């Protein structure tokens, strides 16, 4: 199972980025192999409009099973994500990636 | 770090005056971001020094190199915006009509058209009269606010808050229901909706709340000029209750806001009185909602 | 004559002025009032008319044909507005982000993105005796006001060429929608408040009108609050202030209920009379 977090940095202790479309990074945790990797999304600051679908396309290519984020994707991004059978959990705004993962495991995050 | 965003669907409800009042109350504890770039007025109350300025680029405009152009007219054929009139046998792009789609540049057989990034305004990092920092922007004529500019202003504000170890970023949000307000809301911890009990005010409140709700952000509402129309006020209260929006406070119709503004002051620096007391209490309440004391 | 009512800042009384002026003028002659503030149209809240026409408004957007598409990625590449997303085996179009430039469609090597109409909003037309009221509203989620404003203007031109007086309630601000809404106007009325915010935003609106080379005048609303800076500024720039609407809580209360002010507030009606006198003079000038 692959879990992706929107994050401010590349470590387990990095903060969750509450934004989806304009998130700085994707933090990718592959539970099966216990491996982590990150995707840099910071170039998105150059996008005037339509950041959501752009970022969603990038996420889609990672083929995740679960997305954990803060405020949840907007309408355009949600439309892309709906194509991929991705479970989305929100409400992790003020956590670190690690805390968000623990909250997810305990079932404390809200499904979008 | 918490991010409080103040919005109102309709103009003239007192959003900016209230945001500036909260900025004064929060003083050194809050970093301020003005994302209402279409009518950026908060600087009139907070006295920023416009210390660090940087150009802001957004969007593209086609430019035709007259030397290289062979006058084939293919660009005119593909342009859906009638942005390339022929003036004295020269093809000249009209900046206000060009949408920046780049179609002409792609099909020009002699590569005479370049897409140039536009300098649409400036953004600033300033020290304001409270001694704290404000990030703000100014756009040129015809330039439109964008998610990009709002994200830029907010990112800078947050970076500074991080650096100075401040707990709060206070954002004067963008108007309308388009991309800029979406970008204003993204990342918010708490949203303050400022409205007034008029048919227009209520109408626009409902429209903008649809967006806030989509993001699932906790929201509170301040009804300004609350005594103007008890009937509509009651309707707004019911709307707030049904949508689990905190009713932060009612503010009376009071011209002290305007009188204070005329002197370049917020209500907090103006004469004491009831209005100031309510605004102070509201700020305490808002800080409780976001757990910052 | 086409009169656009605009303001740099929102909430200064654009809609109040547009609706009252139009209804008042329509007591005597035919008037078309058009609400071009398509993101937040509010004029309709003040007009009681009978709905006589309703049509959906469309813009052209590409539609993906999966059978002929080779997933070459050219469409995504050429779209400067990020309105096309390519997933593993499909192309997704985001109509709200599309500017209808046709580049993706016409540059597609297999013609797999034909342009089709997509609804972006609605136009409604109402009649109340001599007043025709036209309102366009952008669907929630749509982001571009300009195409709907342009189509609404075209609708008025095509259907009401014979009506002499046309009043347009413009969107606030100084960006593209305002430019579109005021570009064909013979006269632009900028309405402001005598406060520092009002003055600051008025200056931006004035710069915009000067850039567009428009004839414009100023109306001060809520006159009596704030200070004289707006008056001094207009005097200094030789901008005529044709009307000053007094500040009053009674006016604000009537407005809050969606009432027309000129019917119940004599001071307001007197100021409207001045404005109408000014319009008459202009009309005579243009006839000569």
The CATH homologous superfamily of the largest domain in chain B = P-loop containing nucleotide triphosphate hydrolases
- Write down the secondary-structure element order of chain A: EEEHEHEHE
Instruction: Bin the helical content of chain B.
Output: 25-40%
- Would you count the extended β strands of chain A for me? 6
CATH architecture of the largest domain in chain B: 3-Layer(aba) Sandwich
How would you state the average pLDDT of chain B, rounded? Answer: 92
- DSSP summary: helix tally of chain B: 10
| The CATH architecture of chain A | 2-Layer Sandwich
Largest sheet of chain A: 6 strands, mixed
Give a description of the structure.
The complex is a heterotrimer of chains A (112), B (293) and C (288). In chain A, 24% of the residues lie in helices and 24% in strands. Chain A has 112 residues and is an alpha/beta fold. A six-stranded mixed sheet of chain A has the order 3-2-1-4-5-6, covered by helices on one side. Chain A starts with a strand and ends with a strand. Chain B is α/β, with parallel strands linked by helices. Chain B has helices spanning 15-26, 43-46, 74-78, 103-107, 147-163, 179-185, 199-215, 230-242, 256-262, 273-289; strands spanning 2-7, 30-34, 52-64, 86-87, 90-91, 113-127, 133-139, 168-172, 190-195, 219-223, 246-250. In chain B, helix 5 (147-163) runs parallel beside helix 6. Chain B is elongated and about 70 Å long. In chain C, 34% of the residues lie in helices and 26% in strands. The mean pLDDT of chain C is 93. Chain C has 288 residues and is of the alpha/beta class. In chain C, a hairpin with a 4-residue loop joins strand 4 (84-86) and strand 5 (91-93). Classes of the chains: A alpha/beta (112), B alpha/beta (293), C alpha/beta (288). At the A-C interface, helix 1 and helix 2 of A face loops of C.
